[in-house]
Design goal:
two-stranded antiparallel ribbon; seven-stranded mixed beta sheet
Length: 190
């Protein structure tokens, strides 16, 4: 009886590995994965801000080369390729979250920019380790002076069988919420 259980377990493991491999192949298609972002923070904030450009400066530690601008680094087979640059996806998500919580988006005044230093998904093993690090900067456009800078890092361990795209988006939301909880950030946009 035990031998039959072990055989079924191995078959299940092989089938599971194949299904994961096939699902990841879809992430590496030439057109990229389309991810819609819907803001979801329950925070509220006031202030005025202009959301400028973000850049994606993550580096692949294996090659010491910059990550392709439309790829989120991960450890599984295949790659997580988006249908647009990671910097544009994150910039739009930050814009939507800020507007959703009550911050007024204005064309002049304080400019928010960001540098996505790391967006990493370690999905080998029984769980997923996430690292999402952004350096945010506020600049007073009238004087050209930097009035705020801070690095916000989200590190989490999640269940492998959860909703990875939902968690990916939640990491961005959590980073914006860290901004909103920073009194220096709120002071700079008011």
């Amino acid at each position: 009886m035990r031998g039959n259980f072990e055989g079924n377990r191995r078959i299940f493991a092989v089938l599971f590995a194949l299904s994961v491999a096939f699902s990841l192949v879809g992430c590496g298609t030439p057109t990229g994965l389309t991810i819609d972002y819907a803001p979801s923070s329950t925070k509220t904030a006031q202030g005025n801000i202009n959301v400028g450009d973000f850049k994606y400066s993550a580096v692949n530690p294996k090659t010491s080369q910059p990550m392709p601008q439309d790829v989120i680094r991960n450890t599984a087979m295949g790659e997580i390729k988006l249908d647009r640059d990671v910097s544009k996806f994150v910039r739009d998500a930050v814009f939507n979250e800020l507007r959703f919580v009550g911050v007024k988006i204005v064309p002049a005044g304080i400019l928010l920019t960001g540098d996505i230093e790391e967006f990493f998904i370690d999905d080998l093993g029984y769980s997923i380790d996430w690292t999402y690090r952004v350096k945010y900067k506020l600049e007073d456009k009238t004087t050209g002076k930097t009035v705020y800078t801070s690095v916000k890092t989200i590190q989490r361990k999640t269940n492998k069988f959860g909703n990875p795209l939902g968690i990916l988006k939640e990491n961005i939301k959590m980073s914006v919420e860290e901004l909103l909880e920073d009194p220096e950030f709120i002071k700079a946009i008011n």
